[in-house]
Amino acid sequence: QKKSRAATARRQHLKSAMLQLAVSEIEKETAAKEVEKQNYLAEHCPPLSLPGSMQELQDLCKKLHAKIDSVDEERYDTEVKLQKTTKELEDLNQKLFDLRGKFKRPPLRRVRMSADAMLRALLGSKHKVNMDLRANLKQVKKEDTEKEKDLRDVGDWRKNIEEKSGMEGRKKMFEAGE
After folding, report:
1. 103: nearest Cα among 111, 93, 117
2. What tens digit of pLDDT does each residue of 85-128 get?
C-alpha cells in the first residue's frame, strides 16, 4: 500500500507539472502570435495620416477604394481556385476508388418482382425459361361425388333462407309437409 500511495502521489505530481508546462507553452504561443500580428500590421498597413484639405481626402478615398477592389478580386480568384481544386480532388478520389475496385454501395430498396422478371433483368435476351410454376402442373379432373351434387342442388343457402322466411315460406313448408 505504501508503494501504491507513492506511485499515486508521483503520478499526481507529474500530472500537475505537465499541466503547468502546457499552460506556459500556450501563453508563449499567444504572445508570439500577437507579436507576429503586430509585425504584419506594421508592415502591410502603414499608420493612417489624414490630410487637411478636401482634395487630398478624396484622393485618399479613391486609393482605398482601389485597394478594396483589388483585394476583392484576389479573394474571388482564390475562392474560384479553391472550388476548382476541391472538384479535382473529388474526381481523383472517385478515380482512385474505381481503380481499387471498392465502390460505395448504394442504399437498396425492396422491389417486388416475379421470378420471370428477375431472370429477364439479370440475363436479358438469354432468358428463355418460363418460371410460371402453375403452367407446368398437371390438370386433374375431379370425380363428381354425390355429396358435391347435393351441394350444387342446394345452391346458395341465402336464397333458401329468404324463401323460407316470412308467411310465404311457412306456407310452402306447410304445403310440403302435407
Report:
1. 93
2. 999 999 998 888 888 776 667 787 777 777 777 777 777 766 56
- Which residues constitute the domain of residue 90? 53-104
How does DSSP assign 117-172, residue by residue? HHHHHHHGGG------GGGGSPP-PPPPPHHHHHHHHH--HHHHHHHHSHHHHHHH
- Residue 66 maps to a domain: yes
Region 124-137 average pLDDT: 63
Nearest to 142 by CA among 152, 154, 157: 152
Residue 26 falls within a domain, yes or no? yes
Write out pLDDT tens, residues 36-48.
Answer: 999 998 888 877 7
Tell me what pLDDT residue 176 has: 66
For residues 73 and 100, state if they share a domain.
Answer: yes
Residue 40 resides in a domain: yes
Is there a contact between 119 and 127 (Cβ–Cβ < 8 Å)? yes
Task: Note whether residue 85 is domain-resident.
Answer: yes
Q: Is 48 left (phi over 0), alpha (psi -120 to 50) or beta?
A: beta
User: How confident is the model at residue 13, as a pLDDT?
Assistant: 92
Total number of domains constituting the chain: 2
Residues 25 and 23: their CA atoms lie apart, in Å, by 5
d(CA 77, CA 72): 9
